[in-house]
């Protein structure tokens, strides 16, 4: 295992424990689409935070690991990592997070986006009214949903924080007109009072 470079990493899964007796780990992906995990041969493991850690802390900074095998196991994934060949070592990784740099994600077809690329984009409607920025993404099964939050006014830093509106906009062609990652904005067919 080697230390990770200082590049920003995107969390993709959590290690839930050991699988078997030969050092395999069991993963719970954060998304149903785990293509990035399958494509990458090297992952970064960030140490578990205090509430997820069990026992002593074994490492303090992200570590780069080489993936020997990855396969589905029920609704989870299991992986064999180079240098992890003992159940106790695999169990010590429980609660740690698997992450990758954005550059390791496979390219997508035109018109498809990774959720992480949509976060922080400004959302405007067809009338050029700014509805807010994408704060998070949700999945309700058949479709993804943009969680768009209004930005607090910048002209009153000492005033009490106003209650900010939130819009839940289905990320489907019927409501999303365009997405421009280069311009940092999404245009939607949505009104401020929806």
Provide an overview of this structure.
- It contains three helices and 13 strands.
- By secondary structure, it is mainly beta.
- The protein has two domains: 96 residues, RimM (Elongation Factor Tu (Ef-tu), domain 3), CATH 2.40.30; 74 residues, PRC-barrel domain (SH3 type barrels).
- A six-stranded antiparallel beta barrel has the order 2-3-6-5-4-7. It has a six-stranded mixed beta sheet with strand order 11-10-9-8-13-12, with no helix packed on it.
- The chain is elongated and about 60 Å long.
- 22% of the residues are buried.
Task: Give keywords.
6-stranded antiparallel barrel, mainly beta, about 190 residues, 6-stranded mixed β-sheet, 3 helices, about 10% helix, single chain, 2 domains, SH3 type barrels, 13 strands
